[in-house]
Design a protein that fits this description.
Chain lengths: 321, 321
């Protein structure tokens, strides 16, 4: 088992597409082997540069990510793309579209593309995305692009994993910049004004710059606005240059280190939670007892705090308090 | 302390506005007293009917909730309104707007209105909303209306707390129903077509009904479409009637019980997690040790799984595995 995991890890490090794909499936299914594999791969990670791309539906995220990926490939960089859709356990259309779109790269071994949906994750999508990023990092992808479908809080949590967050806007979406999803302004390191050949682009850029001028620069970085027409490959070089420039700034200001420590703090807490929960409920009859207690609480025979204390007691975790 | 909590609980049950407001603040601030209070109040809960109202910004949620509240008040029912904004820790504009809007009810003791934002909750907003719902339930509010600002995953998690979920749409939002946030279709028990006097209302209703006809009825309930012009108080009676009808169906089909047990299962797990985390990290130096370990992991001196095992060991929670 451990021997085969070592083998598997080696193949991942060599960029073997099937080994990577199998590892992602293991991560998605919470297989014990995934943890062993990630533990083995972990020392090989920390080299990839993660760029998160978010924005409302219709801003052209997929096209932009596609062009950006092609740009990096032309420079001989290895690229990984993770397209994430946290909107629904039932959805799949957008993801399917991505797959079709990306087929042009299917024969390029320097490019790995994977879609991830919520199915079965129950909020663990950010965790799974983080683990797949580590995997692609270990597999030697220098550029990892994380693309989300929408701009919900989950998407924000996911792109926050990235070293550099690109927020996309387009002119004439009917919604004024004033209605821009709160929270997006705060997380954007770079703003892309896509479909910049459309009417209203100048006005949107002005509005955006006016709003950005009110935002305090973070560690000396003023988020710039880059104009693109992704469908015509315009502005992609400038965007890649800006992303690279942010990376250098991010590194030299010490912000990269600070952000990574913060990220790992959160991840350790999550891991800790899932370990402890496993211990509290993982024993024989744990799940069944939980269901019984939930029923008693729903019927007001017991209050939730007493119910939890019971679980803690019976799992032997009630030692100290 | 316990004596004064008993007093406090009694005043909440009598509907004392200041006692309720103080309890909400205690919940928001994770005060230990909040738990003692909720434990005491718990047997008095389970009577309120919770209606969640969600929909894109601009669909008129606030106005509709306002009118619905007035409708229930006219029928001598006690009403609680919770307006939730999970979009940003920084926001507050919409919330402030709600407060101003609701001032008309300020002198009505049968109506309690509270806004809640993400500030300091870090994902705990659904939990806090659930606890405030319990509180208003204990305070004798027969109708509790939970209104969200947007339609992100967090909002969906929040309205899922409710017994009845109302999803709002308006004609001519620029976005076709095809672009409707995935996940909304699945959670709606009732769809409200607001601003139904606008152009495009008939077409939207047709589209909506066509889509709903594809959705499997849940326990024999086909989500109906109710047309309203909330700003002119049109359709509110019909909506209230439909909400009431759903409630009866929900009760008699056994779905209410099933949903409540499911809800309590999730809540017990959350409570369990926070208890265990408190135990693992709450000791002297726990937070500091976590920060140190996160730094070692960020520098790849240690893998995250080993780091978590260290925390478990040092907190004495590593007993069994």
């Amino acid at each position: 088992m451990s021997q085969s995991t070592e083998n598997w890890a080696e193949r991942v490090c060599l960029g073997d597409v099937r080994a990577i794909a199998r590892a992602i499936t293991a991560i998605e299914n919470h297989e014990a082997a995934a943890e062993e594999l990630l533990r083995r791969l972990f020392p090989r990670t920390g080299k990839a540069y993660l760029t998160g791309v978010t924005g409302a539906p219709g801003t052209g995220k997929s096209t932009l990510v596609d062009r950006l990926a092609a740009h990096y490939r032309a420079k001989q960089e290895q690229v990984g793309v993770i397209a994430v859709d946290p909107t629904s356990p039932y959805s799949g259309g957008a993801i399917l579209g991505d797959r079709i779109r990306m087929q042009g790269h299917a024969s390029d071994s320097g490019m790995f593309i994977r879609s991830m949906a919520t199915r079965g994750f129950l909020g663990g999508l950010a965790r799974a995305t983080a683990e797949v990023s580590l995997l692609l990092d270990a597999a030697g992808k220098q550029q990892v692009l994380i693309e989300t479908v929408g701009v919900g809080q989950d998407e924000i949590d996911i792109v926050r994993l990235a070293d550099c967050v690109v927020v996309m806007l387009v002119p004439g979406m009917g919604d004024d910049i004033q209605n821009m999803k709160a929270g997006l302004m705060e997380i954007g390191d770079i703003f892309v004004l896509n479909k910049a050949d459309r009417e209203g682009a100048d006005r949107l850029e002005q509005q955006l710059n006016a709003m950005l001028s009110l935002v305090m620069p973070r560690d000396g970085w003023h988020p710039p606005v880059v104009r693109t027409v992704a469908s015509e490959n315009k502005g992609i070089d400038a965007l890649a240059e800006t992303i690279g420039r942010f990376g250098k700034h991010f590194e030299s200001s010490g912000e990269r280190k600070r952000k990574h420590v913060e990220h790992w703090k959160e991840r350790l807490i999550e891991l800790l939670e899932s370990r402890l929960l496993q211990r509290a409920l993982g024993g024989a009859g744990g799940e069944g007892r939980l269901a019984e207690l939930a029923e008693e609480v729903a019927e007001r025979k017991k209050d939730p705090f007493s119910a939890v204390n019971e679980i803690l007691k019976s799992s032997g975790l009630n030692g100290m308090t």
